[in-house]
Design a protein that fits this description.
This protein is of the alpha+beta class. The protein has 3 domains: 30 residues, no CATH class; 108 residues, Tetrahydropterin Synthase, Chain A; 70 residues, no CATH class. Helices cover 54% and strands 20% of the residues. The protein has 9 helices and 6 strands. A 3-stranded antiparallel β-sheet has the order 2-1-3. Strands 4-5-6 form a 3-stranded antiparallel β-sheet. Strand 4 and strand 5 form a beta hairpin. The radius of gyration is 44 Å and the shape is rod-shaped.
């Protein structure tokens, strides 16, 4: 309790019994020196890059010098509330949004240190400030989310394009390393698959006929494996007759 004598501050009466001289002294005000909590709800705060944010948090304080809390400030609770809001806005205003969201823990310390430099003059200590959430308005949050999704989709498209480029390059390199015999082998295997269908029209390039003639017996074995019932020479002769007939 704060005791005044003849209208002036005299002493601080602690817990328990305290003698007050009638007519000369009076109890001016009682103060609770336990730790208290203040809710912080800041609907609007601007970052350094002019983005609006909504801030929610709590602060803990306690009176360490009752005489200063009464004599140095008119209404310490309202003053502390306003100071907290002001310092939170000041600290947020000194940071870019990305910097702010990546350093939320340091935000608490920065606000607390700035507030404590002021409240010590009022006999009040602020041991802890906890910013529970920092969020942009709904329309800004939606825009940020869409931008992030677009960036991820662009990255995925770039990855797929690079994968296709590598695959095409690998196929090209492999094709350049194939000799005529290997090309004919793959061509015959393709004929085998095409022959399984109905009304299939097969086109033979002239290079295929030349390679077929050069391979001789090996070509006969490949043709037999593909289900073509004639030798390579017979097939070449037949195909040339067909081409000449056209």
């Amino acid at each position: 309790a704060i005791i005044f004598r003849l209208g002036k501050f005299n002493r601080i009466a602690g817990p328990g019994w305290s003698v007050v001289i009638p007519f000369f002294e009076k109890e001016f005000q009682r103060l609770d020196v336990r730790t208290h909590m203040i809710s912080l709800e800041i609907p609007l705060a601007f970052t350094k890059d002019d983005l609006r944010l909504k801030v929610d948090g709590i602060a803990y304080y306690r009176i360490v010098d009752p005489s200063k809390a009464v004599l140095q400030i008119d209404d310490y609770q309202r003053a502390l509330q306003n100071l907290l809001v002001s310092q939170v806005r000041n600290v947020i205003g000194s940071m870019h949004m990305r910097e702010l969201f990546s350093n939320l823990d340091s935000l608490n310390d920065m606000v607390r240190d700035a507030v404590r430099r002021q409240t010590w003059r009022w006999g009040i200590d602020v041991p802890s400030i906890q910013i529970r959430s920092v969020s942009p308005p709904e329309e800004i949050a939606i825009a940020m989310q869409q931008k992030e999704i677009a960036a991820q989709q662009l990255q995925a498209q770039r990855f797929l394009a690079e994968a296709r480029r590598v695959m095409i390059s690998a196929v090209g390199d492999a094709a350049r390393n194939l000799d005529d015999r290997a090309i004919m082998y793959f061509y015959i295997k393709a004929l085998e698959e095409l022959g399984k269908g109905q009304a299939t029209k097969i086109i033979f390039p002239m290079q295929f006929l030349q390679v077929l003639e050069d391979m001789g017996k090996k070509a006969d074995a490949m043709l037999a494996g593909a289900g073509i019932g004639m030798s390579a020479d017979e097939l070449v002769k037949l195909l040339k007759e067909k081409i000449a007939g056209k």
